[in-house]
Every structure is written in structure tokens, then in C-alpha cells.
Design a protein that fits this description.
Layout (H helix, E strand, L loop, with lengths): L4 H15 L12 H8 L3 H10 L15 H12 L5
The protein binds heme C.
């Protein structure tokens, strides 16, 4: 779980439903191999796909009140990568 309590709650109630579920087709939290090609697209593309959706990834990841900062922090947590 993310260390920040607010992020942990968002993660627990949205992202985790798919990103910790091998059947969902989503890159799994902590699976750096699955995230590597996605991270290679760059932070802007990842953020765009998180906000606007991408195939099975629903717009906003079902977190309608999340900020861009929160999405980047969640993506950093799940991918194990740091973004500037
Ligand atoms: C209903 C299921 C579901 C939920 C909830 C969900 N995701 Fe996803 N996510 C997916 C799937 C499926 C993919 C893979 C899409 C593909 O590559 O076809 C994905 C891919 C992604 C990607 C990679 C996009 C890319 O360009 O490769 C990011 C970033 C992402 N999710 C962020 C999040 C965040 C942040 C949350 C929580 C706020 C979240 N997701 C919640 C299903 C979900």
C-alpha cells in the first residue's frame, strides 16, 4: 500500500481492484517488467492514459476526484518508478 494515507485509500478503493488482479489484464503493482514498456512511453502519456482511459483502463481509473499529482504518485507506486 502507498505510505500516504489518502493515496492508500484511493489505491485500495480503485486502482487495486484491477492492478492487483491477475485476471484484469492490467500491469500489476510491483511487476516492474510489466510496467517497463509503459513507463518508457513517458510520464505525460501515462498520465493521459490514466485520465482519459486506455483500452481496459477506465477513465480516471474510477477515481473521479483524484488530482494529476495523485495519479502520478499512484503510477509511481504501482510501477516502482520515480517521476519528476
Ligand atoms: C477497472 C479496472 C481498472 C482500474 C480500476 C484501474 N485500472 Fe489502470 N489499467 C487497467 C487495465 C486493464 C490496463 C491495461 C490497458 C492496456 O494496456 O490495454 C491499465 C493500465 C493502466 C496504466 C498504463 C497505461 C499505459 O499507457 O500503458 C496506468 C498508468 C494505469 N492503468 C493507472 C491506473 C491508476 C492510477 C488507477 C487508480 C486510480 C487505475 N489504473 C485503476 C485497468 C484498471
Amino acid at each position: 500500500m502507498p505510505a500516504d494515507a489518502a493515496l492508500a485509500q484511493v489505491y485500495d478503493s480503485s486502482c487495486k481492484l484491477c492492478h492487483a488482479n491477475p485476471g484484469a489484464g492490467a500491469p500489476l503493482t510491483g511487476d516492474t517488467n510489466a510496467w517497463a514498456p509503459r513507463v518508457a512511453q513517458g510520464a505525460d502519456t501515462l498520465l493521459d492514459h490514466a485520465i482519459n482511459g486506455y483500452n481496459g483502463m477506465p477513465p480516471m481509473g474510477l477515481c473521479m476526484h483524484c488530482s494529476e499529482e495523485q495519479f502520478m504518485a499512484l503510477i509511481a507506486f504501482m510501477s516502482g518508478q520515480q517521476f519528476q
